[in-house]
Design brief:
The protein is an alpha/beta fold. Helices cover 31% and strands 22% of the residues.
């Protein structure tokens, strides 16, 4: 009898309902332009047709409301009691800055900051999102740790400048992300030189380090390098990120390239970690057969009886050290739903719905005799 496939673990913090990918933007040092990168990345992703949210959990120094020119106060939904995000530039926003006046400091100890972080993640009616960008506070303190414990992050981006001090700090920031099991998608080097608009002379005000050296030091690729440009400051201060205010600007196009690089990095990570994933799941109730089309062009088929019999849930498997087949009379499948991006939950007509089938387990049991439809048996 085959052993149960291990597959990705089901335990850990639950995902945010309706949110497909969560990417944290971090920096171990303040003043490197982290929030500018987070804001423009969010707008760039939205301009590519994605549904995007931006959670500003930089509790002590929120700047997203200024960058997006938003001053209205978010309100809770009467039915769900969740806070409705504010929308600007095609991005759904939530920030501590919405609840403060311009001069009010946030004098909070760690537990209060952690509580606010949780509220801005699970207490917000984000709706259906393709991406949620999370703007972290600088450093490696309570808020980043709370974030990692509260929601599973699909990846992190580390923002730095070319100066030696910033690069020394950012290695610690990268280590923090790895410590909380967050894959590092790559590094963004901000303020990478100043190009004089009059004479065209380039000055490396913060020093210079080759991308290869930065990637080798941090252990992650350099996704983008952005020079100092007054237009970025002007548009941000005016309440409209440059990617929204001036889409044809060279830096706006560079942020679009960053958005593409993030998509590619997430796709590669997904493939490296979990392999192929279902593209479509079709049911044939007359034949009692499920057909799954996978991202690697493989098609697998299962009888209803085989799928139900190899259910991996604790109710069906008990405490057996090896997976066992459970006979169920006339099982009928009535629905399925994705669990993160690693498994599928199946719903049966008799109410049984505790079986979470990892993609690896589905690929493995496709070869089991009980799962193979009669038409495919040799």
């Amino acid at each position: 009898m085959p052993e149960a496939a291990s597959g990705p673990a089901v335990s850990g913090p639950p995902r945010l309902e309706g949110v497909r990918r969560i990417v944290a933007v971090s920096s171990a040092k303040g003043g490197v332009g982290k929030s500018t990168v987070a804001a423009n990345l969010a707008v760039a992703l939205a301009s590519r047709g994605y549904r995007v949210g931006l959670a500003d959990v930089d509790i002590y120094g929120p700047s997203i409301p200024i960058m997006f020119g938003v001053s209205e106060l978010p309100h809770p939904d009467a039915a769900t009691r969740l806070i409705e995000p504010v929308e600007s530039c095609g991005v759904r926003l939530m920030s501590m800055g919405f609840f403060l006046d311009d001069q009010a400091p946030v004098v909070w100890r760690g537990p209060m900051a952690m509580s606010a972080t949780k509220q801005f993640l699970r207490g917000v009616a984000w709706g259906e999102l393709d991406y949620l960008i999370v703007d972290l506070p600088p450093g490696t303190g309570d808020v980043p740790l709370t974030l990692a414990q509260e929601i599973p992050l699909d990846g992190g981006i580390v923002v730095t400048t070319p100066q030696d001090v910033a690069l020394a700090d950012v290695t610690r920031g990268a280590a923090m992300l790895r410590r909380v099991s967050t894959p590092i998608l790559g590094v963004v080097v901000n303020m990478a030189g100043y190009l004089c608009p009059t004479c065209g002379t380039r000055d490396d005000l913060f020093g210079t380090h080759p991308a290869e050296q930065i990637a080798r030091t941090i252990g992650a690729p350099v996704l983008a390098q952005f020079p100092i440009d007054a237009r970025v400051r002007e548009t941000g201060d005016a309440g409209r990120p440059i990617t929204a205010a001036d889409p044809e600007h060279p830096l706006s196009r560079a942020y679009l390239a960053l958005a593409e690089a993030v998509e590619e990095a997430l796709g590669k990570l997904r493939a490296d970690l979990y392999g192929a994933e279902p593209v479509s799941i079709d049911r044939d109730d007359t034949a009692g057969v499920v057909r799954i089309h996978w991202s690697d062009a493989v098609v697998t088929e299962y009888t209803y009886a085989g799928l139900r019999g190899w259910c991996p849930c604790a109710v069906c498997q008990g405490h057996a050290s090896q997976a066992r087949f459970v006979e169920v009379e006339d099982p009928r499948l009535v629905g399925d739903e994705g669990v993160g991006r690693y498994a599928v939950r199946l719903h049966w007509a008799d109410g049984h719905d505790t079986g979470i089938y990892s993609y690896g387990w589905l690929r493995e049991i496709a070869d089991f005799a009980e799962c193979r439809p009669a038409s495919s048996r040799a």
